Amino acid sequence: MKAPVSWIKEYVDLPADVTTDELAHRLTALGLKLEAIERAGGDITGPLVVGRVLTMEPEPQKNGKTINWCTVDVGSANGTGEPQGIVCGAHNFAPGDLVVVVLPGGVLPGGFEISERKTYGHVSAGMICSARELGLGDDHAGIIVLPAGAGQPGDDAFDVLGLREEVIEFEINPDRAYALSLRGVAREAALAYDAPYVDPAARVTPEPNDQGYPVIIDDPTGCPVFVARTVSGFDPSAPTPDWMARRLQQAGMRPISLGVDVTNYVMLELGHPIHGYDADRLAGPIRVRRATEGERLTTLDGARRVLSAEDLVVTDDSGPIGLGGVMGGETTEMSEATTRILVEVASWDPVSMFRTGKRHKLTSEAGKRNERGVDPTIPEAAADRVVELLVAHGGATADPGVTKVGEAPATPAIQIAADLPARVTGMPIEPATVISCLEAIGCNVDGEEHLVVVPPPWRRDLTDPFDLVEEVARIVGYDQVPSVVPVAPAGRGLTQGQLLRRRVGRTLAGDGFVEVLTFPFVGSEAFDALGLDAGDPRRTALRLANPLSAEAPLMTTTLLPGLLETVARNLGRGTTDLALFEIATVTLPNVGVAAPILPVDRRPTDGEWDDLQKALPDQPLHLALALAGDRELSGWWGPGRAATWSDAVAGVRDVAAALGVTVDVRAAHQAPWHPGRCAEITVTDGMGAQRALGYAGELHPRVCKAFGVPARTAVAEIDLSALLDLAVEVVPAPSLSSYPVAKEDVALVVDESVPAETLARTLREGAGELCESVRLFDVYTGEQIGAGRKSLAFALRFRAPDRTLTEAETAAARNAAVALAAERHGAEQRT
Amino acid sequence: MSGPNSSYDPVQVTPLGEEQVFAMRDAALAAIAAAADLDELKRVRTEHAGDRSPLGLANREIGALPPQARKEAGLRVGQARGAVNQALAARSEELEAEAEDRMLAEETVDVTLPWDRMPRGARHPITMMSDRIADIFVAMGWEVAEGPLVEAEWLNFDALNLGADHPARTMQDTFWTEPAENHVVLRTHTSPVQARTMLTREPPIYVVCPGRVFRTDEYDATHSPMFHQVEGLVVDEGITMAHLKGSLDHFAQAVFGEGITTRFRPSYFPFTEPSAEVDLVCFVCRGTGEVPAPDADGGTGQSVTCRTCRGEGWIEWGGCGVVNPSVLVACGVDPDRYTGFAFGMGIDRTLMFRHGVEDLRSFFEGDVRFSRAFGTEI
Ligand SMILES: [Zn+2]
């Protein structure tokens, strides 16, 4: 809402020393939030003066244009009193007209400096201004021609044009519809300064009679009040007065024609939407009803609309002539030929207005006010004000007929305990203060301890006691609320899951991984790029009805696309050695269950609550890793080490270890990984069942290409929720033997297909209880071993809890380990 | 090895007179002093203190002397050998210290060599700020509540007094999922967690919920379709706006420092009544709206408009209010017995002020240089 300050001051007598900034801040403190203060003409510096055109000589140019060489009387504003010679390209004026001239030295909006310059064979000393050049509107077709008598040549044009007006733009919250008018803004200003206020809607209006235009309301719920007035003898060519056009512009509306401008002006003034019809184009009585499904109407914006049975329509014998309260129809629109106008001011059901606006994707100044609720008691005043202005400026005559159908519904009273504001706000607000505050906003208050409050008709947002508490609180002042830290009962701290999630992030950061957060939106192209099969469950993703980008309409089921794009972005910015991680939920849709819209007047039943939960997609927390370039850099210490598949596996293993979970890995084939370099990460759950957590390894070379990441980029993705569930809550302390350790190394030659992990397990099993650890320390392949074979070297450590082991005991355990490996895997000891 | 000399041969007897023994001793001491390094000292030890050294041989011959001469000679030779051994030990210690000094000097390295063997890891500043905020409230006895990002329409809107025909629904540009009749949205705020908490816990309730939210905002320097909020909810007997103010003042000071308080402005949210916008004293200019001019003026005491708050002295931080009784009713809390308050702040926004982040997109681009700058705790 843009409110010119001079307009506010028409209705409220503010103290003389109140500045616009101060006023705006006081109103902000009351709840009308300051967005901006515009100072019209604030970016123009003089000299900007009134001039009278003395002569104008058209001079056709070679380029086909005709310019006018003018002399303009600018009084003594140019210092000489001589006429000023100015070249002007516009033609909408004549000698004798009063125009606006900017003289050399002036600066127009946009920093456009005016100086004497040679052009078209003349020295042009200034410029005759158009509205657009002065930032006053879009009209560039011609220059501004001031009304005769607007001023004398040489007068300062700032005042004549209203260029010193200040306009406060407020952000109006949806509950304060009354502040979408000067009437409402001025009322708040009066409240802020306890200043005298004149209600512009308080006017004596002619009594309704039966000579007015016939109106029938079929749906009084949808349209409780309909007031119609008519004027005749209207001059459709009568211009909109400058002051009105200027205020409309300042309020953000475009002047169109006097008939339309008057209805808009009164809407801004009083907050009530108004519609004007060309009365000669109406056929028969006006009837308000719900549309029939599929009925058609072309609205003023030229759109052909198919109506719904819920839409409220204004009709005449020809059918629908307007979408009630939202937008008028084309067939009865006022035109350059309109001489009789019917003024409609009707109250409409806000919910119906909101639905119709939404259904037809129609936002209008009228709709915005009607869907928030307007004062139903002022249609007569608003209609009368419109008639007054049409008569005053359009030469019209008010017809004697006054139609009024329906009555404004009474505002329901609200019961409120006088101490409720104090109890809710924590401010010591006396009942007397509560009453005076409520009266100050126009409420009628009865009672002392238990108050019966009837809100004023323009405050249809006030419906329950807490609404009144807010009113009292804002008038007493939100700055008066004391600051008291509430004392909570002893809390349980973070949950185990919350603590563990932090542990995962810290572990990875300690491992050199950098955390990133990416958007969860993907397109199916991303799944193609990952090389997922047509039947891959990860392709089943939740679709957004209104995605920001048509290329990414899905909620992702995997964190990898976002992570790989981030790798590529970092590469593009010159960072080549990368280890990234992301922890975020993915969305795994479940099929076809709708989330119920439950009642809100009671708690949902357990069954309803369960239905709601079931309708939501599964949203497990995932962890993804990506590595590219060097894991360890080369430097003075020696060569670097490129990140490989094993770093991705190690990252997952580290996280599992930090959570006290033992994971197993085994070779797997899974997109988007390299088929020979993909590890499936599994865990054994509480029931002893093996379950997959995710995968880690090197990306398939085709996937690297598709995402523009380096060859051999390694990634991992696991279901972190599942891993967190298995985390060890209480670690049992180890019991350590202090007897000496016995060490034995063994090198075993096996077939290449035997996994190292399996062989290590076998050794451990074979070595028995005395074996403390088995560690692989070397892998060798080569001619000495033979094709298809590999040699794995393990360090075994033995120790007993209660004695020093003898050499014989150690050797026996070692031999048993080797024997089991030979038996199970055909392992041969290498000597 | 000592013992009676059984192969007694008087011819080989060396004279063990005082002068001879002293000469042997002095020669040994001179050689020890002259030894330049440990190797040479080892040789000297063999030559002058070994079994076959003059003093060693002399010692062996003592046994061959007539008994009456043995004592005197023994004493003399013993003293000489003692002096030599002592000198050897002293010189050895001296030479070892010299050798160690030399070795340490030779092993000197350039300690300024770079140390960037493994690129540093980091957590995301938003994660860290979320944790920090959670910790502030956990320290007050609150708990951390959670809820899903893909949420039921009823919880995101209806339960919060945002019915289907509420004009404020269009204020929050919502991502809807298909099919529309499933009534599932991407949560537009963390407020559905309020409803979830009330529906799953009994009052007294003191919770915060940091988390991700989504709106259909175009992505630019100040808008993002995904951002982060922290929701706070208290439902207890006798809760007032004063407790809300106290909690937010404490929160502000814990995040931004001593003396940074909050201001309430009337506002509107369907789920709170009364509702307020929360402003924060600008922690850069501390509410004055001005900061000292850059040094170019040589500390002339001139000041310029604060960029963080654009001269307002206050920064918009979030929204809050008293929980609307209709929300309590929908969530099964007795509005006659309990009152509550709720607030919601932008975490991204909080970080932007606190750390001077100029472009919201920095949080979501994943440039490792950005996260690394913040390390692992914030
Ligand atoms: Zn500041």
TrEMBL record, chain A:
GO biological process, one term: phenylalanyl-tRNA aminoacylation
Domain TRNA-binding: 42-158
Localization annotation: Cytoplasm
Residue sites binding Mg(2+) per the record: 461, 467, 470-471
SUPFAM superfamilies to which the protein is assigned, alphabetical: Anticodon-binding domain of PheRS, Class II aaRS and biotin synthetases, Nucleic acid-binding proteins, PheT/TilS domain, Putative DNA-binding domain
Every FDX-ACB domain range: 737-830
Cofactor annotation comment: Binds 2 magnesium ions per tetramer.
Domain B5, first and last residues per copy: 409-483
GO cellular component: phenylalanine-tRNA ligase complex
InterPro entries (UniProt xref): aa-tRNA-synth_II/BPL/LPL, B3/B4_tRNA-bd, DNA-bd_dom_put_sf, Fdx_antiC-bd, Fdx_antiC-bd_sf, NA-bd_OB-fold, Phe-tRNA-ligase_IIc_bsu, Phe-tRNA-ligase_IIc_bsu_bact
SMART domains: B3_4, B5, FDX-ACB
Uppermost EC category: ligase
Family label: Belongs to the phenylalanyl-tRNA synthetase beta subunit family. Type 1 subfamily.
PANTHER family according to UniProt: PHENYLALANINE--TRNA LIGASE BETA SUBUNIT, PHENYLALANYL-TRNA SYNTHETASE BETA CHAIN AND LEUCINE-RICH REPEAT-CONTAINING PROTEIN 47
Protein name per Swiss-Prot or TrEMBL: Phenylalanine--tRNA ligase beta subunit
Species of the source: Nocardioides pocheonensis
Gene name of the record: pheT
UniProtKB/TrEMBL annotation, chain B:
Subcellular location: Cytoplasm
Primary residence: cytoplasm
BP terms from Gene Ontology: phenylalanyl-tRNA aminoacylation
Positions of Mg(2+) binding: 273
Keyword set, alphabetical order: Aminoacyl-tRNA synthetase, ATP-binding, Cytoplasm, Ligase, Magnesium, Metal-binding, Nucleotide-binding, Protein biosynthesis
GO molecular function, one term: tRNA binding
Any one Gene Ontology cellular component term annotated for this protein: cytoplasm
Required cofactor names: Mg(2+)
Cofactor note: Binds 2 magnesium ions per tetramer.
Entry's EC annotation: 6.1.1.20
Domain of life from the UniProt record: Bacteria
Enzyme class: ligase
Coiled coil: none
Catalytic activity: tRNA(Phe) + L-phenylalanine + ATP = L-phenylalanyl-tRNA(Phe) + AMP + diphosphate + H(+)
The keyword Cytoplasm is assigned to this record: yes
Domain Aminoacyl-transfer RNA synthetases class-II family profile: 135-352
InterPro entries per the UniProt record, alphabetical: aa-tRNA-synth_II (IPR006195), aa-tRNA-synth_II/BPL/LPL (IPR045864), Phe-tRNA-synth_IIc_asu (IPR004529), Phe-tRNA_ligase_II_N (IPR004188), Phe_tRNA_ligase_alpha1_bac (IPR022911), Phenylalanyl-tRNA_Synthase (IPR002319), tRNA-bd_arm (IPR010978)
SUPFAM superfamilies in UniProt: Class II aaRS and biotin synthetases, tRNA-binding arm
Keyword Membrane found: no
SUBUNIT field: Tetramer of two alpha and two beta subunits.
Family: Belongs to the class-II aminoacyl-tRNA synthetase family. Phe-tRNA synthetase alpha subunit type 1 subfamily.
Classification via NCBIfam families: pheS
Protein name: Phenylalanine--tRNA ligase alpha subunit
